[in-house]
Amino acid sequence: MAIKGLVYFFYSPFQGMIYWLYRLLSAGKGADMNYYNASGQMDLSDRIAIETGICIGESFKKIAKRLRRHPSTIAHEVKENRTFIKGNYPNGKDCRMARQCTVRNLCGCDEEACNTKCRLCRGVDCTKVCDRYVSVACHKFDSPPYVCNNCKDKKLCNKDKYIYSAKFADAAVTRRRSESRQGVRLSDEKKEELDELVTRLVKKGQPLTHIYAEHENEMSVCLRTLYNYIDEGALSIKNIDLRRKTGYKPRKKKYNDINGFHSMEYRQCRTYEDF
To answer: Could you say which of 21, 24, 127, 141 is the most buried, measured as most Cβ atoms within 10 Å of its Cβ?
Structure first.
C-alpha cells in the first residue's frame, strides 16, 4: 500500500496527497470503531442509560461510546421503541385556524341544510380538503434525538410528541419478542401436510412420540412444538385424542415472586431486631 501511495505521489502530487489523507481518515475511523464492540441484545440497564443520556442532552455518539455500541444502534432503539403521545388540539385539528375558522360546505352538501362549521363536523376531515389549512404540528422529533425528552417546552406543549421511556421500551421489546414466538410458524401447505400425517397416525392408535421418531425427517417442527400446536388447536386432533396426555394432571407453574411479598429486601433495617 505504501508503494502504491508513492507511485500516486510521483505521477500526481495532488492525487498522492488525497490518497494519504484518505488512509489517515480511515485509520482514525477504524480506531474509533473499536469502542463499539458490545454484543447481545439491550437490557433494561442499557435503556435507562439511553434515557438518561437523552434527558441531559448527550449525543447518540456519546451514549453509544459509553454503552460500547454503534450510534446507529442507539438511534434505531430510540425510533423503534419511543412512545407516541397524541396532542390536544382544538377540535382535534392541528390547524392554525382551528379555533376561529368559520368555513362551511367544504364537503359539497346543501348549504341551507348544513348549519355546522367544517371545523366542528365529524363527517369530513376539513384538514384534508381545505386549501387554507396550515399545520402547527411540531416536527422536531424527525431529527435526532427523535424524541422530546430534552425539549424545554415539553411540559406546556399540547402538540403530538414522542417520549422515550426505558420502562415502556423494555416492555414493548419483551411483548414483541413474545408475540413473534406465538402461533403457527408454518406455511399453509406444510401445515396441511403435517396435519394430515399426524392425524392419520394418531387415529390408528400410535403415540405422538413414536410418530415423531419414525417420521422426524418429514416434519419441520420438533416434538415440543408439535404438542404446542395440538394444545393451541392448530391441528385437527385435540388433546383428548392423545391417550396418555388425557391421564396427566395439568402442570402448575412455579410461582416466582421476585419483587413481591416473598422478597424481604424492602424490610432490611426495618424489622424489630434492628431497633
So the answer is: 141
